[in-house]
Design brief:
single chain, mainly alpha, 11 helices
Length: 221
């Protein structure tokens, strides 16, 4: 696959067409591209790359309302965003990424109990998660069905659900920097995000008049 994008390509495209962007969408793209560039500067530091790419993801999709109140259903908003991206992905770059470039890493991620939220809820002694193994198997079946049907939005939702757990482990201090214990999922997670985030932003720039939601406005830039 030769359709990988990087910061320079995205920034050049943004500069060329940004005058036609609605203000809210332009701010989203500006912020997301900046964090993609910061992630690229991390080199082989997969932990840092993953964190900065997740910030880029938040910049691209999160709605202002999520910053005004606690949003326990944050991950539920992923599916709407992914559905819009997949529907607008005329070149099927997301499809090819899932089915060709990252098919192996995605399957391994879905088989990894250590990035499955109910496993950790049970491990931390929280009541109601004694059945985490049944939930894990059910999740695996749901993912397999979505994969077989080619439901790319749902597949992305499953994948990002796992990546969200990984994000929490890193951001909330639940893991050690550069630890060998979770190296595979961090490396694969950073690689998946490193390809998909520029693709997501590129699709958004190709469709600036779509309703991408209202970004957070704590500062001007």
């Amino acid at each position: 696959m030769n359709d990988a994008l990087d910061f320079a390509k995205l920034k050049n495209k943004q500069r060329a067409i940004r005058d036609g962007f609605p203000e809210t969408m332009g701010l989203r793209v500006h912020r997301a591209i900046s964090w993609i560039g910061r992630a690229e500067a991390c080199g082989e530091d997969d932990d840092a790359r993953f964190v900065f790419l997740w910030i880029a993801f938040n910049a691209a999709y999160a709605d202002e309302r999520e910053f005004q109140t606690i949003a326990p259903g944050e991950r539920a908003t992923f599916l709407d965003y992914f559905g819009k991206l997949v529907a607008l992905d005329g070149d099927q770059r997301i499809y090819r990424a899932i089915w060709q470039r990252f098919a192996g890493p995605v399957r391994l991620l879905m088989k990894n109990q250590y990035v499955f939220n109910p496993f950790w809820q049970h491990h931390n002694g929280i009541d109601g998660f004694e059945d985490w193994e049944d939930r894990f198997k059910s999740s695996a079946r749901g993912f397999a069905q979505a994969f077989q049907k080619g439901d790319n939005a749902k597949v992305l939702s499953f994948v990002f659900d796992r990546l969200y757990v990984l994000r929490n482990q890193i951001v909330h201090g639940g893991s050690t920097w550069n630890s060998a214990v979770n190296r595979a999922q961090v490396r694969d997670g950073a690689a998946i995000l490193g390809f998909l985030m520029p693709t997501f932003v590129d699709i958004m720039m190709d469709n600036p008049t779509e309703n991408w939601g209202k970004p957070f406005y704590p500062v001007v830039s």
